[in-house]
């Protein structure tokens, strides 16, 4: 058996007391309670939550051991992620940093000709202070970061970038960008012949190269050095075998035309996002990144993950709802001041999942795990 | 108000009777009930479900009006999708076809040199009948479709493709490919110096160009001709304005390095997948496609969607769970013989969402919708 | 006959006087004359040069009519480009601007861990003034523009960007980056455990998304409004037909996984680069761009080209050689102060070629042109 | 000095006798001689040719030692490629195979709706024998290989693929596809509402993912095992250092959004194509590929190159011209029956160039080579 699931919680009754929504002890909300989250409400979808971990984090914002709630119906997923977390934890934890942050909206402006477009862009770039001011007037959380023009013929996409405090922030940046654009349309000297608040270039809900190379949400770097004995005992592999497979997997990405190199980050992200009231549609954009595995001179395994598009929030969106809030609270990630911590834990989840699956694939245990823990009613 | 949500269900009490799990009337499952779907079970995440539609489908498999359950916490999403569905329905429904189907697993074989690799590939391609036979012995649902080699130096990735009946089928194809590979390793004359069941090139849980250009799950084509008056009255736009924005959006995709052209398919897919027990991680791969909007000579709007990676199932995975089964049953998509129907409805959902958001973006209503229907606790 | 080649030069004897190298009147250079351009010299490859144009440019740097020398062995190429130039010229010329410029070198630094990498990057970004100073000491032409870090795990690629005066500048930026890196290695406080002057991310001699979205060499925007009668009489098409095909071609790019949208810029670029002593290997990176065709409200054709990676020089490289210098002189593009002019003309050549081929494809004349003007010894 | 150029030819006078065109001893051709290759002829561009090699090939078609003519103005290029060839030759030569071949044309058909498109595609796929027959009637060299549909909404791109004998074959496949399409338009039962001979998806003169993953021209696999002492003495590196850099370079490709992994294939391809009458514009598509470097258990260096888009011909195009024919003859690659040999040598050139530059980059010799052999008039 390649995968050792950590044991079930000892005291289910304690669990009920702590997490009454998850335990189904709280009546469903009324439609009015859900205003702003749903329309035409007909009930609550229920997705099983498994507790993975503990995951030891030595991040800049996430420090200590975390149990991580994952909502999924894919058998073996929680066990596999737990295995990776165990390997990380036994290795002293994962070091993580927020390398960059920003959320974009990319309005489109069209003019009569290229020369007008150029003049407009020069003017718009000179208005950065006004944009910053408008942002501050519009939102108490958003901060204007930069604007980058992509001129194409007689049109330009202005990629506006903001930080969004502890919210994922998509709506916030839409509203701020809208106010900025109203200012632009009101004050610019050139005649705008077409304007759209979004040119389909912001990367919202879409994997794209632009966001992959830069940032969307948080760009988190994470790494761990796994002692050889942990690789052997927990991951049932060796540093050399995992490095070898990691290289084949990088070439697999290249051959199939995939952004970055990773195996199944979408699994952990979707499960974490559903449990924690994040936007599950953002799996499309968050599930890109670069995993790297290397044997160290000492014979241990260096593993890093670079995840540039982790768009998560500890406030707003679905975070206030019953089970979602409970899941965030399990990790002490609910509310103001917790978004970076949540982003680092999210990176830790991804790295754990990658370590587990890459080990399983490197050693031929992947199939067995699916056969022993997953249902196969149709195989 | 740009977006007209359809009204709430008339008889909530009837709803409870029909959908007791969604209504929270059924006690939570015991961990044993969830074997094969989750480990370390601690409770059920609850996600609000809104009923969008009706959506009129004139597909090859989905015919008639469908109410579509969407699980989300993003305000305005159900209303926006409902608006698109209303436009489609008032236009006589969307015509849809399954254009291709197949799920891949991509094992990796390495040999001492290129010449050995070439001989191996020639032999493997000659074994198609054996692969077909093994597949039939291994699974009562999977059928071997083809194998395609990607030789690179002294290694080859064999992309095996299967149809998987009514299941999404990722585990099924893993198990079949494993049996095939055991046969290969047992009978091929060349010495295999490295073998992995997956080379990270199958497209599982990842957007990639290979799957985008070919198929993963089902490739569904869908289209509708929206009469001008429907575009005006329901979408609050015109065919010309939508076509114009559609073109700008296509260039936005190109400029940002996105696969295909679409605005936010991930939103509808994530909501449908969570509600219906599909694998939400597959949003990463399913949310690619090509939308095209054109004004017809008669002044109406032709809209098509081509979605090559809709990987859904009406059996297996999370489909048997309480609320998931209820949601599938709302669309009569639960159980054997329903997967293609579900795939066509899924395409309909995506097309509806695209029509609504593209109209909103074309006309500057996008921001208002978010401001009026979405919560903005942090703006 | 869809394509009307402009007539041959009237006075070949005058040509010989003006361009004795092209005319073969000058003995071959001695190996010593070619030091710095070739090793193991065995002779001169001879490629036929046709004179395309005139092309009327209304650029910021290129103004007036230009005859453009194109070296190729592909029949119909010069005629096709001339046809596009005729359409542009009869339309009053193409307006062009240099939108951005910069050439990159992307060294790689590796450290013991992510935290060290982060500290290093913070320090490196603070050294911009030192980098600027070193650049000024190293080259009288290069100017330091910016440095952008791409952190990945315990490594970082620093993308250094410079302007390079009138030279294409690849060697110049290599040498400047090397001096900067020597400074870095000498003065940074962190222990560098691996350093490479190039991480294979600069885009040198390779199409890549990074250069496509940003700049490499010069990013040139160019546009022309073709009166309907010019489209009809010269291009044998209509604005509507060309716009329609342009849209299909944009989707063709998306479907096949191509950067940007263009049909055959590589043809004009290769021919111009060979004639003019540019680096023909740079066709790989220069031949990306975005063409857009739109019918104007007046029924004319708006055509724009955005070419972000035109890496050309009017000094250095092969520009000083006999025929190369003569070809540059035909356009008054030889020597100091002419590189931007050459870049704008290059964009004009690309746009002309696109107009001609897109018209031919839109109208079904493409095949005939190849049959009537191209040799088909093997058809 | 990291790079050891092989010595100049011993007997220049012999060279003149063998290669009078290269030596400038033959008067320029008259315009009539160039019919089918150029219009508006004004003279011959002259590009210095250096002889690289010898390169020992152990291919399926190219066997023995080859001196390779490279036309370039980039100092150090011939020396660098010669260094890589020396390493290959001293290692017993490179083994190569043609893994696939085919050239594509991708016509576009549009119908009233998706259902009609589907019926059309089903019919078209059933016409393969007719397409084969038409191809045989149209060309004595082209053979129909396959047709692959890409349906998108109410349109389809049919990617026709042919083998083209010893010609590069772009015109040949255009003409054959045109005849096939005339047959289609004449005999298909559905009403075609738009038809273009090319939908901008064939990959002609453009790098794209479709061609990269499949084939365009020839897909050549090539490999060599370099004994450690050759790596040390000729490449001035070690297998370990080169493998390490090769991995960093693969990640550099991923980070910058490049197809495949290679450093500067465009350099060798452009130089070989110009010298040998190949289409230099095809550098855009040919310069993609996958290089892989690995230390063997014995401490030697395994190096492979996989080049899927080598579109070359030994007949047609510019091959019959004076210096071009001489250059082909130097490698015994002129005329019928030589195209596969030329393709394998081309792959050998690319691999040699990669080995040399990757060694130089791995060891920090890259800058010195450029400083010692390249002119730097503007540094």
Q: If you had to describe this structure to a student in words, what would you say it looks like?
A:
The structure is a homotetramer of 379-residue chains. In chain A, α2 (77-90) packs across α12 (339-363), α8 packs across α12 and α9 (265-275) runs antiparallel to α12. The first copy, chain A, has 2 domains: 5-100 and 217-373, 3-hydroxy-3-methylglutaryl-coenzyme A Reductase, Chain A, domain 2 (Alpha-Beta Complex); 107-196, Alpha-Beta Plaits (2-Layer Sandwich), CATH 3.30.70.420. The longest helix of chain A is centred in the C-terminal third of the chain and has 25 residues, at 339-363. Chain A has 379 residues and is an alpha+beta fold. Residues 1-12 and 375-379 of chain A have low confidence and may be disordered. In chain A, strands 1, 2, 3, 4, 5, 6, 7, 8, 9 and 10 form a 10-stranded mixed sheet that branches. The two termini of chain A are 20 Å apart. Chain A has helices spanning 12-18, 77-90, 114-126, 128-138, 170-187, 209-213, 228-233, 239-256, 265-275, 283-286, 322-330, 339-363, 366-373; strands at 41-59, 63-71, 94-105, 108-110, 143-152, 155-163, 194-196, 217-226, 290-295, 301-310. At the C-D interface, β1, α2, α5, β7 and α6 of C face β1, α2, α5, β7 and α6 of D. β1 of chain C pairs antiparallel with β1 (41-59) of chain D, so a sheet runs across the interface.
């Amino acid at each position: 058996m390649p995968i050792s699931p950590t044991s079930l919680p000892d005291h289910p009754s304690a669990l009920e007391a702590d997490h009454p929504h998850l335990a189904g002890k709280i009546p469903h909300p009324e439609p009015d309670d859900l205003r702003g989250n749903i329309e035409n409400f007909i009930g609550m979808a229920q997705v099983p939550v498994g507790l993975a971990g503990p995951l030891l984090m030595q991040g800049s914002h996430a420090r200590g051991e975390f149990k991580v709630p994952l909502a999924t119906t894919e058998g073996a997923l929680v066990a596999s992620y737990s295995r990776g977390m165990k390997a990380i934890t036994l290795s002293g934890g994962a070091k993580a940093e927020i390398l960059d942050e920003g959320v974009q909206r990319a309005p489109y402006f069209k003019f009569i000709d290229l020369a007008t477009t150029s003049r407009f862009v020069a003017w718009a770039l000179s208005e950065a202070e006004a944009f910053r001011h408008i942002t501050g007037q519009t939102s108490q959380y958003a901060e204007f970061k930069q604007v980058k023009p992509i001129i194409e013929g007689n049109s330009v996409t202005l990629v506006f970038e903001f930080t969004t405090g502890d919210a994922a922030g998509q709506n916030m940046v839409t509203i701020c960008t809208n106010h900025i654009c109203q200012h632009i349309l009101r004050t610019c000297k050139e005649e705008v012949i077409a304007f759209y608040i979004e040119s389909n270039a912001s990367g919202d809900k879409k994997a794209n190269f632009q966001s992959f190379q830069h940032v969307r949400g948080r760009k988190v770097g994470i790494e761990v050095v796994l002692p050889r004995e942990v690789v052997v005992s927990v991951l049932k592999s060796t540093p050399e075998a995992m490095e070898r497979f990691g290289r084949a997997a990088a070439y697999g990405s290249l051959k199939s035309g995939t952004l970055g190199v990773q195996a199944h980050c979408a699994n952990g992200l979707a499960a974490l996002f559903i449990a924690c009231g994040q936007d599950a549609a953002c799996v499309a954009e968050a599930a890109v990144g670069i995993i790297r595995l290397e044997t160290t001179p000492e014979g241990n395994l260096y593993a890093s993950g670079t995840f540039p598009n982790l768009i998560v929030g500890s406030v707003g969106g679905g975070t206030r709802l019953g089970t979602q809030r409970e899941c965030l609270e399990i990790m002490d990630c609910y509310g103001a001041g917790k978004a970076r911590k949540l982003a680092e834990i999210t990176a830790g989840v991804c790295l754990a999942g990658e370590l587990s699956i890459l080990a399983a694939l490197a050693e031929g245990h992947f199939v067995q795990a699916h056969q022993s823990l997953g249902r196969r009613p149709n195989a």
